[in-house]
Specification:
- It holds the Pfam family GH97_N.
- It comes from Azotobacter vinelandii (strain DJ / ATCC BAA-1303).
- One of its GO terms (molecular function) is carbohydrate binding.
- InterPro entries: Aldolase_TIM, GH, GH-type_carb-bd, GH97_C, GH97_catalytic, GH97_N, Glycosyl_hydrolase_97.
- This is Alpha-glucosidase.
- By secondary structure, this protein is of the alpha+beta class.
- The protein has three domains: 272 residues, Beta-galactosidase, Chain A, domain 5 (Distorted Sandwich), CATH 2.70.98; 195 residues, TIM Barrel, CATH 3.20.20.70; 174 residues, TIM Barrel (Alpha-Beta Barrel).
- Helix content is 15%, strand content 35%.
- Strands 6, 7, 8, 9, 12, 13, 15, 16, 20 and 21 form a ten-stranded antiparallel beta sheet that branches. An eight-stranded antiparallel beta sheet has the order 1-2-3-4-11-18-17-14, with no helix packed on it.
- Helix 5 runs parallel beside helix 6 and helix 7 runs parallel beside helix 8.
- The longest helix is centred in the middle third of the chain and has 17 residues.
- It is globular.
- Bound molecules: 1-deoxynojirimycin (NOJ) and calcium ion.
- 1-deoxynojirimycin binds next to loops.
Length: 673
């Protein structure tokens, strides 16, 4: 006979099934300010997380776990063995960066899970909630069933609560990250690179999905999978053989990051990606890691005046490099890059197997004389390794190549990977490239060399751990305004990239074009901005190495160059004052080595008046504001060079009105009086 209790239970079970289903382990985690809530549910079918911001869902229950080759999915039938919580409130000092002190304040939830049946595999998920977003990563400990294995798929989902506005570039394209950004509904994304930036105008929320600490794993793209078209799934960029990740336990995946802010402008003040990276592993690097500005034999190739190939049009000649050194020595420029300096650039170097030799100068360029001359003038040459995507060819020479530069007193190298496939088959974002680039950074450190990489895998904040990893391209940079056979960039490009690509880390965009007339070889290309806008980019685009990209003769006797001379590349603080993606941006940064502040404001193709509140300046202090602004008739289309330089005394109570012309900008140095 059934007891009355059992009968009641049977009745309830059959009517309200959920209440009597298997116990659901639910765990919650709050950000320090309580505005962000992470909820993790251990459902029988699988582990799920969701995120609320200000009590509203932004990510609905989303799947976690892995598909593993030759084994069942590692995702469900889990026992929550243990849940540890930790509170962290600390500060740390980066070697260089957007600010001298970074706060790392977060709450952590560390879940230890084990399969109840079957292979009884174990894994962990660690969540961290900060005031500026959430990071989570998987940890797979050593165990018999998982020693060396292949990840066929990472099941992580981002089931967005709404069809947000998205700013994105498509993944799996030949030009990698070198595209202009699309602005569409989230539901229009097929597969996107990260950072992917989303805004919800009705909700007053801005979200960016990216990753932190990408080491020995594949880069993550985001693919639209669900029927509602607003759920994105991690899509790890595979090797040529289809494997996503060759793994070995113990394994820690990169952090999946979801930055969350009240506005797109606020996203730019987030340190979440850096906070999720490990501290400096290189120790004292002060003898060679030096933020600064550089020039280079570069733009003249992109605008067709000169060539990388040896011969008549050769850019890299001893004489030409001396001219750059002479100009740089008179200004606050620390290095001169020489592209085409080495053997192997003949003809169409990008369309054949690489022929580069990394320790032999081309005929016509005397590297010993050039390095000596540079050092006699108090600066250094910057090395260049173009690989044409030939990784094996590069790795064969790598040790020798960096040793060679060290012998020459070179402390900074730009490397690049032009070409759609590495070694003819691998992707620029997969584990192959992640491993290779790690080797580059570590080898460079061994020879006391800073790294500036083009066409490499995206930034995930590894500069904190490896502070010789200064900057990278990973963006459709200035070069597209020079030599691109299709069109150059649009005027709104530079007011999009700080909110998207910029969230991943420093960007070697190479601003500072002063001469807008280079039609001789490039009748269809333009720099889509005014001169004042070019100056403002030194503040709005963050990079510890900033190029003054134009030719020395184009800077000669131009008063506006004083701003490039003055502007620092290392900051004690950075503040985004205002901005709307694709429209305008106002940034203020304080010099790390003085009490000066700098401001950069830029607009898209539309003129606009922007009031700016100077309350970031010190109380009770007066400043001389040196203002570089668009002249009344400036316009990127037909009068880009028209600039006015004026000076005025201001304090934190002054409200300045910035008058930006189409494609224009304002750059200001505030000198404390
Ligand atoms: C592409 C890089 O982005 C560019 O800066 C460089 O000049 C060329 N490759 C040649 O190496
Ligand atoms: Ca490039």
């Amino acid at each position: 006979m059934f007891s009355r209790h059992k009968l009641l239970a049977f009745f309830l079970l059959s009517t309200t099934f959920d209440a009597f289903a298997e116990p659901v382990d639910q765990q919650q985690l709050l950000s320090p300010d309580g505005r962000i809530r992470v909820i993790v549910n251990n459902q029988p079918a699988g582990l799920e997380y969701s995120i609320n911001f200000n009590d509203k869902a932004i990510i609905k229950p989303s799947r976690l776990g892995f598909a593993i080759k030759g084994q069942p999915d590692l995702a469900g039938d889990l026992e929550l063995v243990k849940a540890d919580k930790e509170t962290v409130r600390k500060q740390w000092q980066p070697v260089w960066g957007e600010r001298a002190t970074v706060s790392d304040e977060h709450n952590e939830l560390h879940l230890y899970l084990a399969e109840k049946t079957g292979l009884k595999r174990k894994f962990e998920v660690v969540f961290r909630a900060f005031d500026d977003g959430v990071g989570f990563r998987y940890v797979i400990p050593e165990q018999e069933q998982l020693d060396t294995f292949s990840i066929e798929d990472e099941l992580t989902e981002f089931a967005f609560a709404r069809n947000y506005h998205a700013w994105w570039i498509p993944a799996y394209r030949d030009q990698d990250y070198e595209y202009q950004y699309l602005n569409s509904a989230l539901s229009s994304i097929d597969v996107a690179h990260t950072p992917l930036t989303l805004t919800g105008v009705e909700d007053n929320v801005a979200i960016a999905v990216h990753e932190a600490a990408l080491i020995d794993y594949a880069g993550m793209t985001l693919r639209n999978t669900a029927e509602n078209h607003i759920t994105l799934k991690a899509d790890l960029v595979p090797w040529a053989d289809g494997t996503r990740v060759y793994a070995q336990t113990p394994l820690e995946t990169p952090w999946r990051t979801i930055q969350i802010a009240d506005s797109a402008a606020d996203l730019l003040n987030s340190d979440l990606v850096l906070n999720l990276n490990e501290p400096n592993k290189l120790g004292d690097v002060s003898s060679y890691v030096k933020p600064g500005k550089y020039m280079g034999v570069w733009w003249e190739m992109h605008i067709g005046n000169k060539s990388w190939s040896p011969g008549e049009d050769q850019g890299a000649t001893t004489e030409r490099v001396r001219q750059y050194i002479d100009f740089a020595a008179k200004h606050d420029i620390d290095g001169v890059l020489v592209e085409g300096w080495n053997k192997g650039w003949e003809g169409e170097w990008w369309s054949r197997k690489p022929t580069f030799v990394f320790d032999e100068p081309v005929v016509g360029f005397d590297i010993d004389a050039a390095t000596e001359y540079a050092q006699s003038k108090g600066l250094r040459l910057i090395g260049h390794h173009e690989t044409a995507a030939g990784v094996a060819h590069y790795e064969e020479q790598m040790e020798r190549a960096f040793a060679y530069y060290k012998k020459q007193g070179i402390q900074s190298v730009k490397m690049g990977y032009v070409g759609p496939r590495l070694d003819g088959k691998e992707s620029h974002q997969g584990q192959f490239m992640v491993r290779h680039f790690q080797k580059v950074v570590e080898t460079a450190a061994k020879y006391d060399i800073m790294v500036n990489a083009h066409e490499t895998v995206k930034d995930t904040g590894l500069r904190r751990t490896y502070p010789n990893l200064m900057t990278r391209e990973g963006v459709r940079g200035m070069e597209y305004n020079g030599g691109s056979p299709d069109t150059g960039n649009l005027p709104n490009h530079t007011v999009i990239i700080p909110f998207t690509r910029g969230l991943s880390g420093p960007t070697d965009f190479t601003p500072g074009i002063f001469n807008f007339d280079y039609k001789k070889h490039r009748p269809n290309n333009r720099v889509p901005s005014t001169l004042a806008n070019q100056l403002a980019l030194y503040v709005t685009i963050y990079s510890p190495l900033q190029m003054a990209a134009d030719l020395p003769e184009n800077y000669e006797s131009k008063p506006a160059f004083k701003f490039i001379d003055d502007v620092p590349t290392d900051w004690s603080d950075s503040k985004t004052l205002a901005g709307e993606i694709g429209q305008y941006l106002i940034m203020a940064r304080q010099d790390k080595h003085s009490s000066d502040w700098y401001l950069g404001a830029i607009t898209n193709e539309e003129a606009r008046m922007l009031p700016v509140d100077l309350s970031f300046l010190e109380p009770a202090a007066q400043y001389r504001a040196e203002i570089y602004r668009d002249a009344a008739n400036a316009d990127w289309r037909d009068n880009p060079e028209a600039i006015e330089i004026v000076s005025q005394t201001v304090s934190r109570d002054t409200v300045l009105s910035l008058d930006l012309k189409p494609g224009g900008g304002t750059a200001i140095r505030f000198i404390k009086l």
